[in-house]
Write a structure and sequence with these properties.
The complex is a heterotrimer of chains A (306), B (371) and C (336). In chain A, strand 7, helix 9 and strand 8 (217-222) form a beta-alpha-beta unit. In chain A, 45% of the residues lie in helices and 12% in strands. Chain A has helices at residues 2-16, 31-38, 54-59, 64-71, 105-119, 137-149, 168-171, 177-183, 196-211, 240-249, 252-262, 268-291, and strands at residues 46-49, 95-98, 125-130, 153-159, 162-163, 166-167, 187-192, 217-222. Chain A has a six-stranded parallel β-sheet with strand order 2-1-3-4-8-7, with helices on both faces. In chain A, strands 5-6 form a two-stranded antiparallel ribbon. Chain C folds into two domains: 11-192, Rossmann fold; 206-333, Rossmann fold (3-Layer(aba) Sandwich). The chains are: A alpha/beta (306), B alpha+beta (371), C alpha/beta (336). The interface between B and C is medium-sized, with 24 and 17 residues.
Chain lengths: 306, 371, 336
């Protein structure tokens, strides 16, 4: 979680210094929702991600060096600089890619579910998407298909309350997640996305269900994003006070840290070590990425066809 | 002042008419009021009269073409006037015409365009080039003064042919290879095919096809020579020498290797017909990569032809005749044909040209391969 | 090798040729799966996949709900994780619903991810009018131009049974997403198709008639009109060369340019409405590479720029016709 947090902070810094081009969408504040689920995933399980995908990838085990290099558009990045922040992918750790077109990753997740079923393994797929995506048809098409074919897909909706500037309540009619999922023939849970352990338990159940052929689950995680939709956004749609309140009261990292310390799973020293190790890893990633070469301009045509 | 001939509006709501045919040819005189062309609309077929007197020029639409109302189709040019030319400061010429002119170092300003607005098209350049060749040749007539004689003027084509043969014999180091071909199977094949075929397949057609197929394996022979390099053509276009009204013409069967025997025979018949009417066009006479000359129908057994420059080879054949062969120490009588191949020694020598002739011989001796 | 090389082959229909290709590939490789609406027991909207479900079952032949975009994307996800899906759209017109998944996602996956994954997919699209007649504006379109525009996609469009079988096999085996266009009016057309294994390389055109006066390029149903036009014109001494591109992307430029450089004239035919169609692309390329060989401007024969109307009298006015092609050839041959 620290790794994600520091990674995103560094990314923000790079953006503000003008070194990171294009749109960068940070998931700061949503770490628990992502880590809690990924904790149950093996390398051979799949995820599909979105424009706000750095956290999904790091949680799935992606190498921060190669991820940072991709953000800086370097040849050593996962996508050799062709994808950038919004189109990262790390197939070697089971990420089928970030799909920045809202909802576009859900069908691919369903397709991966089909593959798994066809090959008869116990792999699972997690399709990450946001609250705004509940306006897109592909979500419902995907859920319909996953339900009728009983595919091992976990639909993980991170409700960070805002789709760019639009509040979730104003845009999305869905009210009762368990009832909605049940009416489509599968299980749905609404979870406090800032409580890492609650996410962990809900995800455990969903992953177990998928692995054993029980079909899909819809996890609706209430979370919050601390940064704007993208770095540099003038956030006219919410008040400074609201964001401050969230940062101080529902930051998942200090909350989880406190929980672990209290139940003595962690000691302060170990917690400190974890934090420092994460900081160091991200710093190392930055050094690696900055030192890496850019792709050869003459290779612009490579990879069009396999 | 040239008068436009255009597609008239014959009925109230007519948008276009089909030009069925011209009643006068390009270059012919027309008189005002004379029927000039036939038009078909959805109502009827009508004759349209000329609206001026003069000469019909710059015909830009042909038979059975749809022409929108008001479109210019030709000009009637007053006697003594020059045909309409384009604006002097710009030569309008199609890309291929420009290219051919450039390849032959022709000054564009000398070209006369037959197209609309004086546009020069490919045919115009070919026409100019063939006229130029005529102009270049010279003719001398000499005779002993004291003996009476009749002057027989050589035709343009005869002069040009003579000029080219002179050039051929003077500048090309030619040598000849000869084989006799056992025509037993070829005769059988013809007998077998011909009762059923639309156009009875002649020996000439067989030779054209055989030569075309054999040339596929010998690109150096399907070639022209220019200085110190050969242009080995990807297409195999066989010129077939024929005589019409005392003129030697060599119309071309293009891509002969891709045609069936029947198709080749049909083309030969069509070309002969057009040759006898003097109706061969420039395109039909150009593009040849190899030539066949068959004098069999004149009772000739064998002869040596002159290479047709800039090609590098020519095949001369005579008639199919009964001949005695030696086979297994016995004498047998079978039909035979002599093939003589004349070759430009700058392009090939005996060792490299012989396999082609042998291949050709084998092909004719086993003609079923050609079907 | 082309359809006219094997007069002794058995004759089967275009539809059966497509079915055979699917069947043989599904037998050869169990990763090949067919998705589509009603493709299982019902055999597909036009009957192309009849008998396949009986042979391969749910494992390789799946009926899907009416979710074109999701199905196109699901096929992508399956392709990235080990399957080789073939998606059947009931009509090309409906593929419009899946443009995001086909053009934004499948086409770009290999490139955007720097080669980490590929999408070995086939999208089968029955298109065109002139068959069902009066099918109207949403069941008759020819939309190949949309897909030829997108980098990362391949687009093929066979016109004969022989080409259909050979190209579908090649498409299924290709590691890239291929839009495989079928012309509905040709489903019952019979033609020689050899027994035994063969495939046609993508990117290779076929000269259906050899000629020398003009080059005519046409696909699908238009190819057959062009062949008929060729016969009509031959009677007048105009021997045209008719080229079937077979692959629209990548396009066999060598074949087309070689022909135009020989004939000096080009007539490009498309059933699709005129503006922005593939003929415009062909024409531009000819202008770029064969300008110095042209003896007349390049001519185009296309459908009218209107949605396809329902009434028969209107509909027949909208399509290119045999006479239209004949007139276009004469226009370039007699051009002055």
């Amino acid at each position: 979680m620290y790794e994600i947090r520091f990674f995103e902070e560094v990314a923000g810094n790079l953006y503000r210094r003008g070194l990171l081009k294009g749109g960068v969408h940070a998931c700061i504040g949503q770490e628990a929702a992502e880590v809690g689920i990924s904790a149950h995933l093996r390398t051979d399980d799949f995820i599909t991600s979105t424009h706000r995908g750095h956290g999904h990838h790091l949680a799935k085990g992606a190498d921060p060096k190669r991820l940072m290099a991709e953000l800086l558009g370097k040849e050593t990045g996962y996508c050799k600089g062709r994808g950038g922040s919004m189109h990262v992918a790390a197939f070697e750790v089971g990420s089928l890619g970030a799909f920045p077109i809202v909802g576009a990753g859900v069908p691919s997740a369903v397709g991966a579910g089909f593959s798994i079923q066809q090959q008869g393994t116990d792999q699972v797929v997690v399709a990450y998407f946001g609250d705004g995506t509940l306006g897109q048809g592909t979500v419902y098409e995907g859920m319909n298909l996953a339900s009728i074919w009983k595919l091992p897909v976990i639909f993980a909706c991170e409700n960070n309350r805002y789709a760019v500037s639009s509040r979730m309540e104003d845009m999305i009619a869905l009210k009762d997640v368990p009832a909605f999922a049940a009416s489509l023939g599968f299980c749905g849970r609404r979870v406090n996305g800032q409580d890492t352990l609650e996410v962990y338990r809900a995800a455990e159940e969903a992953v177990e269900r998928a692995r054993s052929g029980g079909g899909p689950t819809f996890l609706f995680l209430d979370t919050y994003r601390f940064e704007g939709h993208y770095f540099g956004e003038p956030e006219g749609y919410r008040s400074r006070e609201e964001v401050q309140k969230a940062r101080t009261q529902i930051d998942p990292i200090p909350l989880f840290r406190a929980q672990l310390l209290e139940s003595r799973v962690l000691t302060p020293e170990i917690a400190q070590e974890i934090e420092q190790a994460a900081r160091a890893a991200v710093a190392e990633a930055l050094v690696f990425a900055e030192a890496s070469p850019e792709p050869d301009p003459e290779e612009y045509g490579r990879y069009v066809y396999a | 002042m040239a008068e436009e001939v255009f597609m008239p509006r014959l009925t109230h709501d007519m948008q276009s008419g089909r030009l069925l045919r011209w009643l006068k040819q390009e270059g012919e005189s027309v008189r005002k009021g004379e029927p000039l062309f036939e038009v078909e609309t959805d109502k009827a077929v009508s004759e349209v009269e000329a609206e001026a007197s003069g000469r019909l020029q710059s015909v830009t639409y042909g038979q059975d073409q749809d022409v929108p109302v008001g479109t210019r189709m030709a000009l009637i040019v007053g006697e003594g006037e020059a045909p309409a030319a384009g604006p002097p400061e710009r030569i309008i010429i199609t890309p291929i015409a420009r290219r051919i002119a450039r390849d032959h170092q022709v000054d564009l300003a000398l070209l006369k365009g037959s197209g609309r607005g004086g546009r020069v098209v490919e045919a115009d350049v070919h026409h100019f080039l063939s006229q130029q060749e005529q102009a270049n040749s010279t003719m001398t007539v000499a005779a002993p003064a004291e003996v009476e004689y009749e002057v027989v003027r050589l035709s343009n084509i005869q002069r040009i042919t003579g000029q080219r043969m002179l050039q051929s014999s003077q500048t090309i180091p030619q040598f000849t290879l000869e084989v006799d071909v056992d025509m037993n199977e070829a005769v059988r094949l013809r007998q077998h095919l011909n009762p059923e075929a639309k156009s009875p397949v002649s020996f000439t057609a067989l030779l054209v096809k055989a030569a075309a197929l054999a040339l596929r394996h010998f690109p150096r022979i399907n070639a022209t020579i220019d200085g110190d390099s050969l242009q080995c053509y990807k297409q195999i276009n066989i010129g077939v020498a024929m005589t019409a009204k005392n003129d030697l013409l060599v119309p071309v069967i293009h891509q002969a290797d891709m045609l069936t025997l029947e198709q080749i025979q049909e083309r030969l018949d069509a070309l002969k017909q057009q040759a006898s009417q003097g109706a061969l066009n420039a395109w039909q006479l150009s593009g040849g990569t190899f030539t066949l000359s068959n004098l069999g129908m004149y009772g000739i057994d064998r002869f040596t032809a002159l290479v047709n420059p800039p090609q590098v080879a020519i095949l001369a054949t005579g008639q199919v005749r009964e001949q005695a062969w030696v086979e297994d120490d016995r004498l047998v009588i079978r039909p035979a044909l002599t093939l003589r191949l004349s070759i430009d020694h700058r392009a090939l020598d005996g060792a490299t040209a012989s396999p082609f002739l042998v291949e050709l011989q084998k092909m004719i001796e086993n003609p079923y391969r050609m079907l | 090798m082309s359809m006219h090389d094997n007069p002794n082959s058995r004759k089967i229909s275009y539809m059966l040729a497509i079915r055979e290709a699917l069947q043989e590939e599904m037998r050869r490789d169990p990763a090949v799966v067919l998705f589509g609406e009603d493709v299982a027991r019902h055999g597909g909207g036009f009957g192309v996949s009849k008998t396949l479900w009986e042979e391969f079952g749910d494992r390789q032949v799946r009926n899907t709900p009416i979710s074109e975009n999701c199905i196109a994307g699901m096929a992508l996800g399956a392709a990235m994780t080990g399957c080789r899906p073939v998606v059947e759209f009931m009509f090309m017109d409906f593929a419009a619903l899946a443009i995001d998944q086909i053009c934004n996602e499948a086409a770009k996956i290999h490139y955007m991810y720097g080669g980490q994954a590929s999408a070995p997919l086939v999208y089968r699209c029955p298109q065109g009018g002139l068959s069902m007649k009066s099918a109207g504006a949403h069941h008759s379109q020819s939309l190949e131009a949309w897909f030829t525009h997108i980098p990362g996609l391949k687009v093929v469009f066979p016109s004969t049974p022989y080409d259909a079988k050979g190209l579908l096999k090649a498409a299924i085996r290709d590691p890239n997403p291929v839009v495989f266009i079928e012309h509905k009016a040709l489903y019952s057309l019979e033609g020689p198709v050899p027994e035994g294994e063969y495939a046609i390389p993508i990117g290779e055109a076929d000269v259906k008639i050899v000629g020398n006066r003009a080059t005519v390029v046409a696909s699908g149903y238009m190819l057959h009109l062009a062949l008929q036009a060729g016969e009509v014109l031959a009677k007048e001494g105009l021997e045209v060369e008719v080229i079937d591109p077979r692959s629209l992307k990548p396009l066999d430029e060598d074949c087309i340019f070689g022909s135009v450089r020989k004939t000096h004239r080009a007539v490009l035919v498309q059933e699709a409405c005129r503006t922005g169609g593939v003929a415009a692309e062909w024409g531009m390329r000819i202008e770029e590479e064969c300008f110095d060989w042209l003896d007349a401007p390049v001519e185009r024969v296309a459908g009218q720029d209107v949605p396809i109307p329902y009434a028969r009298s209107l509909e027949s006015r909208v399509w290119p016709t045999l006479d239209g092609i004949v007139q276009a050839v004469k226009k370039v041959c007699y051009f002055k």
